[in-house]
Write the structure tokens for this entry.
Amino acid sequence: MARLPKYSLTHNNKTKKWELKREGSGEVIKRFKTKAAATKGGVLERAVKKLGSVRIRKRNGQIQEERTYPRSADPRGRG
């Protein structure tokens, strides 16, 4: 299977917004006012066009969780 695009949801202290960035290029895909706005109701899934792995980070930069879209593509879910 082809590698999934990787993204990170991080807080930008200068703009005071949460940014979804493509890892490697640093390209900002979308900005959100709050982390809750970014993570609710499939917003991240639509932002990555239903294909990719998103690392959701805490304000201090530590990884809080990782979500894979589509879920069936998550390598940890295979036995």
Observations:
- The chain has two helices and five strands.
- The beta strands are 6-12, 17-22, 28-32, 52-57, 63-69.
